[in-house]
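User: Fold this; tokens only.

Assistant: Input:
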Amino acid sequence: MTSHAEAVHGGHEHHGPPPAHKSSRVDARVLGMLLFIGSEIMLFGSFFTVYFFVRVVNPDAPSEWPPPPYEFPVFVAGINTAILVTSSFTMHWALQSIKRGQRSAFLAGMVITFVMGLAFLLTQVIEYLHVGFNTGDGAFASVFFGLTGLHGAHVAVGLTLLGMVIIRGFRGHFSPEHHHGVELPGIYWHFVDIMWIVVYSTVYLL
């Protein structure tokens, strides 16, 4: 007599854990990206540790931040923040579009996201050229360029990933059934956006 388990599994019982390369809850590729992002959070954490030491713990910390006569371009950075946050929404739109099989909307969302990310990076370069100080102008300057530069490097990596997705998208890759090549760069891009909000709030506003 066939047992209930055999009936459910078509007569083939499975004992033990799932295959080693699979997760019963999270796709292995997504899990890998999340673990990578976890290591990146620790990297940023080390930079923030230096920042708070220079700003708060250090007995020689300046009473004003940044110390006079220097100023951070808060308004320009705010505009840049709006650009990057908006790009996170267009990235989500692109992913949802390919999941629904809407290829034109997917490509439009990816291109808009890439352009916004590029605009952010170029604006940051222009900001560096006109900020009025350099890495040798004190610990505050080193921390400023260290944190914002580290994030800028991550934006550059993200743009490379988005560019690859766009090229593949125009070649007809991806579908509602096969969209992990879009989802993984999207997760990374959302991480870049969230991390910038933390950097902007900490360095420019506090």
